[in-house]
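Example 9 (inverse folding). The structure is encoded as follows.
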């Protein structure tokens, strides 16, 4: 087996497929025909003499061989990117850091950190992308993002079971709150009990149930689906339903929305972490800015 002749474009295609989870989405992201992506993967499989992907109805999963190749491909591509920056004469804290973030982190945490970095490190470029925790963990493994701001719920476990383990730093840990319209019967209370949440219309977002209070002992009626947190809160303000909100967004709610604490049932806390595989000097600067944003 000789990997030295493998073209870099094939490794980048494989990296993209590993992150996106389907050949079609990788092709779309790269701007390639799907047939070209398939050919690059087939060429790699011929070189390693083993399947790299387990093709399933809803996408692909990496085989054991695929996991090994992805780990080394990510290192090779990251080193080449670092070499390009160094050869361009950029200072150690210059260059580009690719940051992924879960939806509500875009409310205050990420914009605040980016504003601070523009002032303190003007030579550093941070590109960002939004995603679910699962998709961002895949992106970290594929090394198509350098850092990811993620949210997790109790019980707090490792983000995935792969090796090497992702490194994490806790940025914040706060309660999950309830958002209701000011005209809602619950809005006048200082807090509500879990039992008070039965029977109301909810505003949720994918994955199913995100936005509904966890553990309710009834089939919840989801009246509206929206991915964007601000859209969900505007729907609440209009009287269309109620939703859950991370405490970190409590300062960003529009007028017409009342935030309430919920007692009873299991403790609903949300932990915000920043995760990475390898921390370069520019990426460590971004981590410091995120920490400063949550612990000024």
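The amino acid assigned to each position is listed next.
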């Amino acid at each position: 087996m000789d990997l030295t002749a493998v073209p870099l474009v094939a490794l980048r295609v494989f990296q993209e497929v590993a992150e996106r989870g389907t050949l079609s989405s990788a092709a779309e992201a790269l701007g390639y025909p799907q047939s070209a992506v398939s050919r690059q993967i087939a060429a790699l499989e011929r070189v390693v003499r083993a399947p790299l992907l387990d093709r399933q109805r809803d996408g692909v999963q990496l085989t054991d061989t695929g996991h090994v190749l992805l780990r080394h491909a990510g290192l090779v591509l990251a080193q080449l990117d670092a070499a390009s920056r160094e050869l361009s004469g950029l200072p150690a804290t210059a260059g580009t850091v690719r940051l992924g973030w879960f939806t509500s982190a875009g409310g205050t945490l990420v914009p605040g950190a980016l504003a601070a970095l523009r002032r303190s490190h003007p030579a550093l470029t941070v590109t960002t992308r939004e995603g679910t925790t699962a998709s961002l963990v895949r992106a970290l493994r594929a090394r198509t993002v350098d850092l990811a701001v993620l949210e997790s719920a109790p019980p707090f476990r490792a983000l995935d079971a792969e090796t090497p383990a992702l490194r994490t730093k806790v940025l914040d840990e706060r309660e999950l709150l309830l958002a209701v319209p000011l005209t809602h019967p619950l809005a006048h209370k200082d807090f509500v009990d879990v039992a008070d949440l039965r029977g109301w219309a909810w505003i949720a977002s994918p994955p199913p149930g995100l936005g509904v209070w966890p553990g309710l002992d009834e089939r919840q009626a989801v009246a509206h689906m929206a991915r964007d947190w601000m859209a969900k809160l505007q729907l609440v303000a209009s009287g269309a339903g109620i939703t859950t909100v991370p405490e970190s967004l409590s300062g960003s709610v529009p007028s017409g929305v009342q935030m309430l604490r919920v007692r009873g049932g299991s403790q609903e806390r949300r932990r915000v972490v920043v995760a990475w595989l390898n921390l370069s000097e520019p990426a460590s600067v971004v981590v410091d800015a995120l920490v400063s944003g949550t612990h000024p």
